[in-house]
Design brief:
The protein is 29% helix and 16% strand. The protein is of the alpha+beta class.
Length: 140
């Protein structure tokens, strides 16, 4: 006996709508490389982010604070810290995401802080039990 399933026009429309929505999401999540068509050789140096220009002679973004001004033991690390400038170079934030939502940020193998909290200085992050305990508590 042959069984024929009757498909309603409503279920066909629903499936079509779902397929169209998935297609739109997939297209929207693609690589947004609008500049590639305008500049086939790639990005112009002036449009690159500070992290992309590390090592170049271009000055870092003017909104980056000096690392020496940010990384002071006992000072508070700004919640929105994303990097700083040192010797004319942009230094990206080295973050370890914590399980409770904040992040531990480290700098120069001797400073660390939770975003928005007090900056700690130790002789070496690699050898510091204080830092290891803070990182362990962060990731627990």
């Amino acid at each position: 006996m042959t069984y024929h399933r009757r498909v309603s026009s409503t279920s066909v429309l629903t499936r079509s709508a779902v397929a169209a929505a998935i297609l739109l999401l997939a297209v929207g999540c693609g690589d947004d490389d609008k500049g590639a068509a305008e500049d086939p050789a790639g990005e112009s140096p002036s449009s690159q982010s500070p992290s992309a220009t590390e090592g170049s002679s271009e000055p870092p973004a003017p909104d980056l604070p000096l690392c020496a001004d940010v990384w002071v033991a006992g000072a508070t690390l700004p919640r929105d810290y994303s990097g700083c400038e040192q010797d004319g170079e942009a230094v990206r934030a080295d973050k370890h995401q914590c399980s409770y939502g904040s992040a531990i940020v480290e700098f120069a193998d001797r400073f660390y802080a939770v975003s928005g909290k007090q900056i700690n200085e130790v002789p070496s992050l690699t050898d510091s039990e204080q830092y290891k305990q803070a990182l362990s508590a962060c990731q627990a």
